[in-house]
């Protein structure tokens, strides 16, 4: 019987293990968290959400919504358990991280076709041989251990094996001043899920000034910091210009107060759990040193006496050059029985990582069954992600977005008299509908 070693029990690893096991394929799942936690990790359970508790939009006409619908067709464990332990977050799927990770861990460990082992993997191929595995899937994630990273360096250019990511702080709900805060969502008129901290122009400019002047944690080993553009530290945004944050995570658009007035800028807080006893500072991931975080973030209106349950941090992420190293099924060019999935393959984001675990497991199942590799249409969300990482000569991790999908051109009759925002919305809906149809046909053809 064929056997697969999976290195890493993060989102991609758990998805891949669960999918393969459900196809009656034996899996050995190796994870080091129970031995020692890595940077940014806090839980010993699998599938930990280290940066934020949001799995992004569920809107079927959004890029993230499209990706989730395709994952659900593949019977995604992450989406299923995420929905079960969701917390209010507008149209986004945000989860109670501890309950989410705990249940995924229990499900994976209880599966009759999955054997879990506790080991810090430094040579995946050697470990696979020791456990009688014919195939190996490396899902070590962005927090790859030093030993395994050294092994990875032999496969590609070491200078492309890192970029930096940052985490936002979490505050105690009871320590907030609700007289200065109000609930409202940008795109939802019914009961709101987000708590908002409004700034005047003077308050905002002082906050930005403090972010720029505050002490930051330096890069490790004199490495150049290469941050993912969609997850920039708030202090780096401040350094780019006083208005940068106000047109990004602190934009006030859609956040009018009850009297109809619009704040100059706004920080949004999202619930960490159903109990609502903790809030995540949305978009305020940071490089600030711990004492500086407390000082500066207490300048946010309503957070003057905030108690911080978790402070933000910066950690070093690892990924490979998929363009040089991988085939279309994300197997290694050098060894077709070695696969890479998740963020290590060059995607960014929770569901993106999980979807690559499902994709690799799907392709590997076909190989074990004696079927050929199938290239997914890039009109689909999963196909677009694979195409992106396989065609970038200079790796740059990306999440799912409409820029990865084929664009459409509207006729003049379709745009006449309409505002740019409405035209953009209509174009995205057309792209989404085409993606849905493309996936439907692909899925029908490959299930025969």
Q: SSE layout and pairings?
A:
Elements: E1 3-7, H1 11-22, E2 26-31, E3 54-57, H2 63-73, H3 77-84, E4 86-87, E5 92-95, H4 97-110, E6 114-118, H5 124-130, E7 135-138, H6 146-153, E8 163-167, E9 170-172, E10 182-183, E11 195-199, H7 201-213, H8 234-240, E12 265-271, E13 278-281, H9 290-297, E14 308-310, E15 313-317, H10 322-325, E16 338-340, H11 350-368, H12 381-391, H13 412-415, H14 420-446
Parallel strand pairs: 1-2, 1-7, 2-6, 7-16
Antiparallel strand pairs: 3-5, 4-5, 8-15, 9-13, 9-14, 10-11, 11-12, 12-13
Helix pairs in contact: 1-11, 2-11, 7-8
What's the CATH first level of the largest domain? Alpha Beta
Query: What is the H-and-E element order?
Result: EHEEHHEEHEHEHEEEEHHEEHEEHEHHHH
CATH superfamily of the largest domain: FAD/NAD(P)-binding domain
Number of domains: 2
Strand order of the largest sheet: 10-11-12-13-9-14
- Proportion in helices: 25-40%
Portion of residues in beta strands equals 5-15%
Q: Mean of the pLDDT scores?
A: 89
Which regions contain 5 or more consecutive residues with pLDDT less than 50? Answer: none
Largest sheet properties? 6 strands, antiparallel
Proper CATH architecture of the largest domain? 3-Layer(bba) Sandwich
N-to-C span:
24 Å
Structural class: alpha/beta
């Amino acid at each position: 019987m064929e056997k697969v070693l999976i290195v890493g029990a993060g989102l991609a690893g758990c998805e891949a293990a669960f999918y393969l096991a459900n196809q009656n394929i034996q899996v050995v799942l190796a994870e080091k968290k129970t031995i020692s936690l890595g940077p940014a990790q806090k839980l010993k359970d699998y599938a930990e959400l280290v940066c934020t508790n949001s799995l992004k939009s569920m809107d079927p006409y959004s890029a993230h919504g499209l990706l989730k619908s395709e994952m659900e067709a593949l019977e995604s464990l992450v989406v299923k358990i995420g929905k079960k332990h969701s917390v209010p977050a507008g149209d986004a799927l945000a989860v109670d991280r501890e309950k989410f990770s705990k249940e995924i861990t229990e499900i994976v460990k209880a599966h009759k076709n999955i054997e879990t082992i506790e080991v810090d993997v430094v040579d995946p191929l050697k470990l696979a041989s020791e456990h009688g595995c014919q195939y190996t899937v490396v899902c070590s994630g962005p927090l790859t251990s030093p030993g395994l990273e050294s092994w990875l360096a032999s496969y590609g250019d070491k200078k492309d094996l890192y970029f930096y990511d940052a985490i936002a702080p979490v505050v105690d709900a009871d320590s907030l001043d609700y007289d200065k805060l109000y609930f409202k969502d940008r795109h939802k008129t019914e009961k709101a899920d987000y708590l908002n901290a409004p700034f005047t122009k003077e308050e905002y400019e002082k906050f930005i000034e403090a972010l720029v002047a505050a002490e930051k944690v330096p890069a490790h080993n004199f490495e150049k910091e290469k941050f993912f553009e969609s997850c920039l530290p708030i202090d780096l945004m401040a350094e780019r210009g006083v208005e940068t944050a106000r047109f990004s995570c602190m934009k006030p658009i859609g956040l009018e107060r009850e009297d109809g007035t619009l704040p100059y800028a706004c920080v949004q807080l999202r619930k960490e759990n159903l109990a609502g006893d903790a809030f995540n500072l949305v978009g305020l991931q940071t490089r600030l040193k711990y004492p500086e975080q407390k000082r500066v973030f207490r300048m946010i209106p309503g957070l003057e006496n905030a108690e911080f349950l978790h402070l933000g941090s910066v950690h070093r992420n690892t990924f490979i050059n998929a363009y040089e190293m991988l085939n279309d099924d994300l197997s290694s060019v050098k060894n077709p029985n070695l696969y890479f999935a998740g963020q290590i393959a060059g995607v960014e984001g929770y569901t993106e990582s999980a979807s690559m675990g499902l994709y690799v497991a799907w392709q590997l199942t076909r190989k074990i069954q004696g079927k050929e590799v199938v290239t997914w249409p890039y009109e689909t969300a999963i196909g677009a992600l694979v195409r992106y990482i396989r065609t970038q000569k200079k790796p740059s991790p990306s999440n799912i977005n409409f820029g990865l999908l084929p664009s459409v051109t509207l006729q003049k009759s379709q745009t006449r008299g309409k505002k740019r925002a409405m035209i953009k919305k209509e174009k995205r809906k057309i792209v989404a509908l085409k993606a849905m149809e493309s996936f439907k046909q692909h899925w029908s053809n490959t299930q025969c």
